[in-house]
Specification:
By secondary structure, this protein is α/β, with parallel strands linked by helices. The protein folds into two domains: about 250 residues, Vaccinia Virus protein VP39 (Rossmann fold, 3-Layer(aba) Sandwich); about 90 residues, no CATH class. Helix 3 packs across helix 4 and helix 5 packs antiparallel against helix 6. The two termini are about 15 Å apart.
């Protein structure tokens, strides 16, 4: 269903009272439409606005400013409205690319991020590097190819925001029992650690006894599936992770006081890192849109920072990639765009999911 301004707020209220997960699509300027929405209704916003000076889309709008400062000012105003319509526990994921002007890389993503942090009070939880693996043709002879973009994860407060880590963990390798011995997912048996403790000249006899007991307990936790894997850091054998300074590292203090500590791996697998290797191709209607982002780019943000049945927002929805992923994952969604042509494509895509 495609709605128009005015009356977008009323359409949103009607949509929230229906059980359907197919998106509500609104034709209009993002700032005007958002200003008509009630406060604190969305669980998550995932969007990629037009980049400054890069392309002219189907309609005019943001990104065509003569000065990048005006672009940042205009986009910041929309981000302020996003902050207002997000629930206190909501998240804002922003994919934004950079631009060269007079051979100078402007630094737009971080200029914008700092503006949002300093002037609007957003909390930046992650800066994700989207490695597009392969870039477009680049004939420049005096710089490297650009094959990455930034994705920022903002929240409204440092605590209490929704985050489901387990929903995005990778499938872990499994513990095995080999010849009666417990072997962790990456082959840890404990034999090498026992030998290192036994031969250590840095541990007292009391510390060695404690280390042996702790190692046996850790192997038992592996056997019962409580943890998937571990590493043992022993004084004088392994380097302290992060820092040797007891002032900045609790692990360094534990190593000094106890003689050892463990790094434990979650039984449900590891979390994704802040570098995402995702091909930029979008097989959905590439000819109709110059810059659609891939569906895989939306999955981690939507799964991790919105509950099933939650409400997703994309104020620059284009041909509806965010909406398509949200529907497939059981979330309701609202997309806004200036282009009626793009919204018609987005509506066709959502119809295939019904």
């Amino acid at each position: 269903m495609i709605a128009t301004m005015p009356g977008a707020g009323e359409r949103l209220n009607d949509y929230l009272n229906t059980p359907r997960v197919s998106p509500l699509l609104v034709l209009g300027d993002a700032l005007e439409v958002l200003s008509d929405f009630p406060s604190e209704v969305f669980d998550c916003c995932m969007t990629s606005p037009p980049y400054w000076g890069k392309r002219e889309y189907a309609n005019s709008g943001i990104g065509l400013e003569k000065d990048y400062r005006d672009f940042i000012r205009n986009l910041s105003a929309i981000c302020a409205e996003v902050r207002r319509v997000l629930k206190p526990a909501g998240s804002f994921w922003l994919n934004i690319g950079d631009t060269y002007a007079d051979k100078n890389l402007i630094g737009i993503p971080w200029r914008l991020a700092i503006e949002l942090i300093d002037r609007q009070g957003w909390i930046l939880r992650n800066s994700v590097v989207w490695n597009k693996i392969k870039g477009g043709p680049d004939n420049t002879r005096d710089r490297l190819r650009n094959v990455h973009e930034d994705i920022f994860h903002f929240v409204k407060s440092p605590q209490g925001y929704y985050y489901d880590t387990d929903s995005i963990r990778s499938t872990p390798k499994r513990t095995k029992v080999v010849n009666g011995s417990v072997v962790s997912a990456t082959g840890v048996r404990g034999v090498r650690y026992r030998r290192q403790v036994e031969l250590s000249s840095d541990l007292t006899e009391a510390e060695k006894k404690n280390a042996f007991n702790a190692l046996e307990k850790m192997l038992n936790r592996i056997a019962t599936g409580e943890i998937a894997d571990f590493r043992m850091i022993i004084r004088g054998q392994q380097r302290t992770t992060h820092s040797d300074s007891e002032r900045v590292s609790g692990r360094a203090k534990e190593l000094k006081d106890r003689g050892f500590y463990f790094l434990k791996y979650h039984p449900n697998g590891s979390k994704p890192s802040d570098v995402w290797d995702i091909l930029p191709e979008d097989t959905q209607r590439r000819k109709a849109h110059f810059a659609p982002y891939p569906e895989d780019l939306c999955k981690i943000p939507i799964m991790a920072t919105s509950p099933v049945g939650g409400l997703i927002l994309d104020p620059f929805c284009g041909t509806g990639t965010t909406m398509s992923v949200a529907s497939a994952l059981g979330r309701k969604s609202v997309g806004i765009d200036l282009s009626g042509e793009y919204l018609e494509i987005a509506e066709e895509r959502s119809a295939t999911l019904l």
